[in-house]
Amino acid sequence: xxxxxxxxxxxxxxxxxxxxxxxxxxxxxxxxxxxxxxxxxxxxxxxxxxxxxxxxxxxxxxxxxxxxxxxxxxxxxxxxxxxxxxxxxxxxxxxxxxxxxxxxxxxxxxxxxxxxxxxxxxxxxxxxxxxxxxxxxxxxxxxxxxxxxxxxxxxxxxxxxxxxxxxxxxxxxxxxxxxxxxxxxxxxxxxxxxxxxxxxxxxxxxxxxxxxxxxxxxxxxxxxxxxxxxxxxxxxxxxxxxxxxxxxxxxxxxxxxxxxxxxxxxxxxxxxxxxxxxx
Amino acid sequence: xxxxxxxxxxxxxxxxxxxxxxxxxxxxxxxxxxxxxxxxxxxxxxxxxxxxxxxxxxxxxxxxxxxxxxxxxxxxxxxxxxxxxxxxxxxxxxxxxxxxxxxxxxxxxxxxxxxxxxxxxxxxxxxxxxxxxxxxxxxxxxxxxxxxxxxxxxxxxxxxxxxxxxxxxxxxxxxxxxxxxxxxxxxxxxxxxxxxxxxxxxxxxxxxxxxxxxxxxxxxxxxxxxxxxxxxxxxxxxxxxxxxxxxxxxxxxxxxxxxxxxxxxxxxxxxxxxx
Amino acid sequence: xxxxxxxxxxxxxxxxxxxxxxxxxxxxxxxxxxxxxxxxxxxxxxxxxxxxxxxxxxxxxxxxxxxxxxxxxxxxxxxxxxxxxxxxxxxxxxxxxxxxxxxxxxxxxxxxxxxxxxxxxxxxxxxxxxxxxxxxxxxxxxxxxxxxxxxxxxxxxxxxxxxxxxxxxxxxxxxxxxxxxxxxxxxxxxxxxxxxxxxxxxxxxxxxxxxxxxxxxxxxxxxxxxxxxxxxxxxxxxxxxxxxxxxxxxxxxxxxxxxxxxxxxxxxxxxxxxxxxxxxxxxxxxxx
Lengths: 279, 275, 288
Description:
The structure holds 3 protein chains of 3 kinds. By secondary structure, chain A is α/β, with parallel strands linked by helices. Chain A has helices spanning 48-53, 79-85, 102-112, 117-130, 146-158, 176-193, 204-207, 227-231, 234-239, 246-256, 268-278, and strands spanning 3-14, 22-33, 37-41, 63-68, 71-72, 86-89, 164-168, 196-200, 212-217, 220-225. Chain A contains 11 helices and 10 strands. In chain A, the strands form 2 sheets. Chain A has a 6-stranded mixed beta sheet with strand order 6-7-8-3-9-10. In chain A, strands 2-1-4-5 form a 4-stranded antiparallel beta sheet, with no helix packed on it. Chain B is mainly α. Chain B folds into 2 domains: 1-137 and 244-275, no CATH class; 147-238, no CATH class. Chain B has helices at residues 18-21, 24-40, 44-60, 65-70, 76-89, 108-134, 137-148, 158-187, 198-203, 206-229, 248-270; strands at 97-101, 104-107. Chain B has a two-stranded antiparallel ribbon. In chain B, α2 (24-40) packs antiparallel against α6 (108-134) and α2 packs parallel to α11 (248-270). The longest helix of chain B has 30 residues, at 158-187. Classes of the chains: A alpha/beta, B mainly alpha, C alpha/beta. The A-B interface holds A 53, 56, 58, 80, 83-84, 87-88, 90, 92, 94-96, 98-101, 103-104, 107-117, 120-121, 124, 140, 142, 156-157, 160 and B 12, 14, 136-138, 163, 166-167, 170, 173-174, 219, 222-223, 225-233, 237-243.
């Protein structure tokens, strides 16, 4: 697989050069591969958002480099092209939706790309269909639930037809049902449209649904691998302020009781299958 | 405690009436004409005619008049204050004193002035409220943008101005809801907004407005980042999904407003101003 | 200081075209020292109901009586009531405003016009209760706090009023696992040690299942269930139907039960689940 995003020795400080600068990223190296679902987790303030904001030129490296499909984010002439390829969804939908009607907000991005009216219309319709939002097309955003608003925010990014969507804690303030819906939709975009997904989250259940994960702490990447590999290092996970998926906790408890559940069990399905075989 | 209840400015009341379906440009121009007329009205008769028009529009647009005017409630203290100022401070050489109290005296000229100015503010408010109640923010701004377009040639950043307006209006509601929560959060810690003297009351505003402003700035910052992430770089190179077009109803409405203006101008000319 | 609610109904934006009934005919009773969870799908009326408990909202119909005082009574001392019934909002940014942590926490008691020493004592005590070290945090800039610390400062700000009842409105939303755990520990401690009646509104079924003794389930402004925690989760199917999820453990045990395991209808913790599942398997081994 070829990397869509390549980060080399990236360092970033807020208020750089002002004397009381805060180092947010320290020599970070990582890659995002085309077509994968990557989770980035770590406690609040660990540098996740700062890293992700480099992916579509909202921040530019203080030192080191970030390349999107070979285009450097530090080069101002690449900004427009990179933002077409990498879309971003934020935590609070109220602070990212611009318009007050669903379809008009979805059109905002394509309008910024200067597309002809018919194509914008086409894209909006396609987006509404892809995310099953047809019934909300003319709704006023004030009338929607937080979960629906967040889906509209994803739609607004999808309508720009990006290759990669970065979701920055999109479910932090949602109820469990909406949370699942938002994540399922993001995963569907990966499966059906081949869009690369980078998901920043605190929810371990969401992390386990990703192909690969990174754990950040104090501006550095502390762990990297598939969720199965990463959650296997119990001590390190706890020291980084994270938690385990419930299935892993159950599996662990059962193992301690002498029941032979395979290590690296993190999904409910796996656990249920193993238990059914034991019975 | 419900703050958002009395905010009508910037609220859109969806509907499918003739007024709702007018081209936003028609409505904006009509509102502009009406507002201009208001600045020249100096007789009670003209205001009466104007009131008649307002009620007619409310009826056609199926807006409950009680609701349209409820937005005035928060403004009432300011209006009363303004009225009192005029009443006691404005006078003409030939004015007759109607009441006097301590060092203050009110003249009939002051009374009329107070009435006229209050009514002017009332009507200005009502006209704008009707405009926003019947026009979604988006079509409102599309209309404004299209009207301001010719001014781009002389360097007016019309698209940016309009975008600023959209966001300001969108945020009014969000902030009002937020204000409601902040007030409650502080009331929960024992702030009594309705108690104490003027200084105590003023002091009790700090714990409310400080968080409000800080949150508003935070929101604005996040919104700017989100817009930037969605490739917004100002009006340049931006296209629109929807294009506006005027129909027969617009023509009819335009003619009607012209006739109405003629009537008002006639009244302004023949009826002597009360002051 | 019991709360007694009788046939409470409430509509938002009453008298406007946007009028919407949020609460319908709610009756309930909250005893001293209880830990009550309030759950329900979004817009079920959870917050609206809770804001009646300390007279932030006054009933449209019906009555709310806190400690024998009717909140609709014009002569009721609502300011005093609100000191007795503390309310912590989801977003600490709505509450924190003073430049330093200490000053912000002192805001509540200062509104009670207490003597300075008493205020300082209360601030110190409240900071201790939420685990914010006095020497480290008293002069700390509010905006230099982490998400979890801000929540704790907000809780301390309410605790400093010495409430007998505390309402916590989705206070763990948006926190990382560590921050969540800290807050939960604080809440548990306050309830067990200080015997504060706790009303816990949350979207997290796991937290409610773990913390609450009793759960009130709201759906479309009405009380659907009001029962012991375990008994409420026995209605798993109904809860899912109205848009709620089960606690994560239960979503696994329910599926195991469907696959033939003999498990209780409601399983509220990992330990319980482990024991119940292990019992099943060990039984099987004996049979072999």
